[in-house]
Write a structure and sequence with these properties.
CATH class of the largest domain in chain A: Alpha Beta
Helix content of chain A: 40-55%
Strand content of chain A: 15-25%
Order of helices and strands of chain B: EHEHEHEHEH
CATH class of chain B: Alpha Beta
Largest interface: A-B, 14 and 17 residues
CATH superfamily of the largest domain in chain A: Histidine kinase-like ATPase, C-terminal domain
Number of strands of chain B: 5
Radius of gyration of chain A: 31 Å
CATH topology of chain B: Rossmann fold
Structural class of chain B: alpha/beta
Radius of gyration of chain B: 13 Å
Number of helices of chain A: 21
Distance between the termini of chain B: 15 Å
Shape of chain A: flat
Number of domains of chain A: 5
Shape of chain B: globular
Oligomer: heterodimer
Largest sheet of chain A: 6 strands, mixed
Strand order of the largest sheet of chain B: 2-1-3-4-5
CATH architecture of chain B: 3-Layer(aba) Sandwich
CATH architecture of the largest domain in chain A: 2-Layer Sandwich
Structural class of chain A: alpha+beta
Strand content of chain B: 15-25%
Distance between the termini of chain A: 69 Å
Strand order of the largest sheet of chain A: 16-20-21-19-18-17
CATH topology of the largest domain in chain A: Heat Shock Protein 90
């Protein structure tokens, strides 16, 4: 029984450690990349040191000695740098990255319940990094380590998450939190009572947000020779430190500021040294929810939205009759209340599905760095707008495309350093990832100041691969030619390199985006660089749509893709080269009918009474429809199987009357 | 500086006199009480700087005495003198407002240190 309880506790502790380790390793990776650019940044070194120290403490608590010795070695190296005994070299950076990779492997292994790689595999690397062997390390590095400094234990048990969350909440509210580590003589009697005494005395002068061991554990006589207190306020913490120091058997009280998981965003311009900005992110109190649950909740909200719309229609019918007008208006006010509630519910759920871009871009700086080295190029990578939030599904859909675009930028975009110098460009190429909101869309852009694309080469390749005829290719503008890279089977790199060529091409990137109603746009100029912009919808599940009638069927067209609506009789319809066109202010716009498009003869004349001016990248088109039924909020239902592959069909929805309607993606049907 | 006053509370004469002798040797002015109730009376009579308080005593125990004293004088500085087996009771005493504790049988230095700290604080 006891064994079982212990095992359970260990499992809980391990879970906390793994989560913390993920955070630490991700931060460490980012920080190492930054360190390479700012090798003497003491704040950065401090952060790295602290990360290794925390990891070591956690690993030691659970008896994971292999990682303890590796972290300890790392600490020594970082300390030597921090104290100015040595400076950062590129050789050293490679070593540090190697150690980081070992720690990642280790984390994955213990996460799967495996033993973890032996430290002997990496310790030679760690030792080679050090000037002198770690002082507290014995002659054999396999001996379990003991270290003299204070070691913060992980907050006890499952309470750890709650404690971290409440500390982060405090910090995010602008309350400075300090960590007081109180160490007692190891042979002191009644240690738990001493801990209790310290805690009680400190609580008289300051707010204690939490402790490790927790109060509960202390009361249950679970205490060791170290007590960690999380105290709110700087002055209060100093006072608490003084008071704690007066308690018998206390040998040391150290104090440091509590920092929330830090993420780094480097912003730089070509002629400036990379400027390092440390953004403190407060996560607040969070829970994990299965995406499937969110999806099903969202579906239910969708049903509610439909019911609400139906209710309003019933109310309208009732109100048009004087006998039932009273009931009608009652139902109408009920419907509008339902509307408010359901749209708040909708908003809330929508927000719950949102994640910041940060959650996927953390790995990019390292990736770009590694790629650049492999290609023998110099790059400065910067990111902005990582806190831009988007739907999980969207985020998942852009992960691979972004990787691909960054690879392309390094591999094909940025020139070799000497080539850049010859061209009068800064030796290091700039690659930037940025994200922002624009109207009701999210834009994510990858740009570089490299060589740009060569339209002539793309054209020749496309013709050679039979993707387009020589004749047709001659008619395309340079921009259109460059967009050929989105066709499957076109790779413009003269040879597929290890870096870019992994089978995920621009065509796959485009498909990924289209699956989430996104678009990909390309801008490139030879010698100046390339910009690829991903246009993404804010949300996927509910959209405003225009309902139109065509051949007795109702279709939904996302309002976001319609620029303007015209009544056709007011417009002069003419023809240009035998094709229908209409004049919109001073522009001539091709006019196609929806009926014609759906029956594959877009130019046929029919009874279209309205024209929708579409919002597309380059050339707007007027789409003629027979009847407009109005604008409604619709719930997008995903189509599965064969139907999902029908070009121009974005999904389906259920109308207020209960009939299904197809949602058209007019950018694809035209 | 005026001589600090210490009230030694213990029902056992041996312990009481041992502490008293030790502290008197350091120049403290010593008062003695034989149980909790006696301690509360003497406390408000003498107004000592520090109280050394046993836990298990007849008539009124140490914890109760701490509560009674602290109720009227929240600044009262009480050090519990306790056997190592009385963990939960010390905890209780601290909760009631005791500032410190020393383990019985006490080491002279520890006791003196504890008293000195309370006099300073």
């Amino acid at each position: 029984m006891i064994r079982e309880a212990e095992a359970k506790e260990y499992a809980k502790d391990l879970e906390v450690l793994l989560a913390e380790t993920d955070e630490i390793l991700a931060n460490t990776e980012q920080n190492l990349v930054l360190l390479e650019k700012a090798p003497s940044d003491s704040a950065l070194l401090q952060e790295l040191f602290r990360a290794m120290h925390t990891l070591k403490g956690g690993a030691a608590t659970l008896g994971l000695e292999e990682a303890v010795s590796v972290c300890h070695g790392m600490e020594t190296v970082l300390d030597e740098v921090r104290t100015g005994q040595r400076s950062v070299t590129s050789e050293m950076m490679n070593g540090l990255f190697k150690v980081l990779d070992w720690l990642k492997d280790w984390r994955n292994a213990i996460g799967e319940g495996a033993e973890g790689p032996p430290a002997s595999g990496i310790l030679p690397v760690v030792e080679a990094l050090q000037i002198c062997p770690s002082p507290s390390e014995g002659p054999q590095s396999n001996v379990p380590l003991k270290w003299p400094e204070t070691c913060e234990k992980l907050p006890a048990k499952g309470a750890a998450g709650a404690l971290t969350a409440s500390l982060e909440a405090l910090v995010s509210q602008g309350n400075p939190v300090y960590v007081l580590t109180v160490r007692f003589r190891t042979d002191a009697p009644l240690l738990s009572v001493r801990c209790f005494q310290v805690l009680t005395l400190v609580e008289e002068v300051a707010e204690v947000a939490g402790s490790s061991p927790s109060l509960e554990d202390i009361e249950n006589d679970k205490a060791s020779d170290a007590l960690t207190l999380y105290v709110v306020g700087e002055k209060e913490s100093e006072q608490a430190q003084r008071i704690a120091a007066t308690v018998q058997d206390v040998v040391e009280v150290s104090m440091r500021r509590y920092t929330v998981n830090t993420t780094i965003a480097g912003a730089s311009s070509p002629d400036k040294k990379p400027e390092i900005r440390v953004e403190k992110t407060a996560l607040g109190k969070t829970v994990r929810v299965d995406v499937a649950l969110l999806d099903s909740l969202m579906n239910m909200v969708g049903e509610l939205v439909i019911d609400r719309t139906r209710l309003s229609q019933i109310a309208a019918r009732l109100m048009s009759n004087s006998e039932t007008a009273a009931v009608g208006s009652e139902i109408s006010s009920l419907a509008s209340h339902l509307q408010r509630t359901s749209s708040e519910l909708q908003d809330g759920l929508m927000r719950a599905r949102l994640l910041p871009l940060k959650s996927i871009v953390g790995k990019f700086p390292r990736m770009v760095r590694d790629l650049s080295r492999r290609c023998g190029k110099e790059t400065v990578f910067s990111m902005t707008g990582e806190s831009t939030e988007m739907d999980r599904t969207v985020l998942e859909a852009i992960d691979d495309p972004l990787i691909h675009l960054l690879r392309n930028a390094v591999d094909h975009g940025i020139e070799m350093p000497d080539e850049r110098e010859r061209l009068g460009k800064p030796k290091a190429g700039n690659i930037r990832l940025s994200a922002w909101y624009e109207d009701n869309q999210i834009l994510v852009r990858v740009e570089d100041d490299g060589a740009g694309m060569d339209p002539e080469r793309i054209r020749r390749t496309a013709v050679k691969k039979g993707l387009i005829t020589e004749e047709a290719s001659r008619k395309l503008s340079e921009q259109e030619i460059c967009e050929l890279v989105f066709l499957p089977g076109l790779s413009t790199a003269s040879e597929t390199t290890e870096v870019s060529g992994r089978g995920v091409g621009m065509d796959v990137a485009r498909q990924n985006l289209e699956r989430v109603n996104g678009r990909i746009e390309l801008w490139t100029r030879p010698g100046e660089g390339t910009q690829v912009t991903l246009r993404l919808p804010l949300t996927l599940s509910i959209m405003r749509a225009l309902l139109v009638k065509c051949a007795d069927e109702v279709y939904a067209i996302p309002t976001s893709s319609v620029e303007e609506i015209f009544s056709l009789k007011d417009q002069s319809i003419g023809s240009v080269r035998g094709k229908q066109a209409m004049k919109v202010r001073d522009r001539i716009v091709p006019l196609v009918s929806l009926k014609g498009v759906l029956s594959d003869s877009p130019w046929q004349r029919d009874g279209s009474r309205y024209a929708l001016l579409t919002r597309t990248q380059a050339q707007p088109v007027a789409l003629g429809v027979e009847e407009l039924l109005g604008e409604e909020e619709i719930v997008v239902k995903e189509l599965r199987g064969l139907l999902s592959r029908v070009r121009g069909v974005a999904g389906a929805t259920i109308l207020a009357e209960g009939d299904p309607a197809v949602i058209l993606d007019i950018n694809r049907i035209l | 500086m005026a001589v600090a006053k210490v009230l030694c509370v213990d029902d056992a004469l041996f312990m009481r006199t041992k502490a008293a002798r030790l502290l008197a040797g350091q120049g403290y002015e010593i008062y003695e009480a034989v149980n909790g109730a006696d301690a509360v009376d003497k406390y408000f009579d003498v107004k000592p700087d520090v109280v050394l308080m046993d836990i298990t005593m007849p008539v009124m125990g140490g914890i109760e005495a701490v509560k009674a004293i602290r109720e009227k004088d929240p600044e009262a500085k009480v050090i519990m003198v306790t056997a190592i087996s009385q963990r939960s009771m010390v905890l209780e005493a601290i909760r009631a407002g005791a500032r410190d504790f020393v383990i019985k049988p006490f080491e002279p230095d520890k006791l003196l240190e504890a008293v000195r700290k309370q006099c300073q604080g």
